[in-house]
Automatic annotation (TrEMBL):
This is DUF1993 domain-containing protein. InterPro entries: DinB/YfiT-like (IPR034660), DUF1993 (IPR018531). Gene3D superfamilies: dinb family like domain. It holds the Pfam family DUF1993. PANTHER family: BLL2446 PROTEIN, DUF1993 DOMAIN-CONTAINING PROTEIN.
């Protein structure tokens, strides 16, 4: 499977899922008459990031995948400060994914990618290695953590909310 196919369409699909999860969170807050900002400020543990930051990180991983695999400078994203900002960030990320140059990404799959972390650790791998070993696990970690924060706060979510795109493959009867 190609580097493009394992990243861009999958990330777009799951970012649309994340938008649905946030919409359910907002509806849950409205039904119980509390500020949805409480959800964005929630975290699973004191040393973990908030829902707002998890949304930013999921979007960052998707955008950085396109940037790194295309050989472009990395995008810098801001943490959303409201549910509408979170949805706007996802929409901006989806637009970036839609604009990705598939041919360029495939041509660069064997080129070196260096990931430098703030703590001084660095990794070097090809695009073919980066897609399954770095960006995909990072993206899904933040996406799943966002889901878990919402569930932990009582938002009525299930697996069907996480993978709603699967209904396109549902056998009838």
């Amino acid at each position: 499977m190609s580097v493009y196919n394992t990243t861009v369409p999958c990330f777009a699909q799951m970012l649309n899922s994340l938008k649905g999860l946030l919409a359910k969170g907002q509806a849950h807050a409205a039904a119980l008459a509390f500020d949805p900002q409480n959800l964005l400020d929630s975290r699973l543990a004191p040393d973990m990031h908030t829902l707002a930051t998890q949304v930013r990180y999921a979007c960052t991983q998707a955008r950085e995948a396109v940037d790194r695999l295309s050989g472009h400078a990395l995008s810098t994203l801001e943490t959303p400060t409201s549910m509408s900002d979170a949805v706007a960030l996802i929409d901006q990320t989806l637009a970036s994914l839609a604009a990705a140059d598939r041919a360029l990404i495939e041509r660069r799959a064997q080129e070196s990618i260096v990931i430098e972390l703030p703590n001084g650790i660095a990794f070097e791998m090809t695009g073919d290695e980066y897609a399954p070993n770095w960006v995909t696990p990072q993206f899904y970690f933040h996406l799943m953590t966002a889901y878990n924060i919402l569930r932990h706060n009582g938002v009525p979510l299930g697996k069907a909310d996480y993978v709603p795109h699967m209904f396109a493959y549902l056998l009838k009867g």
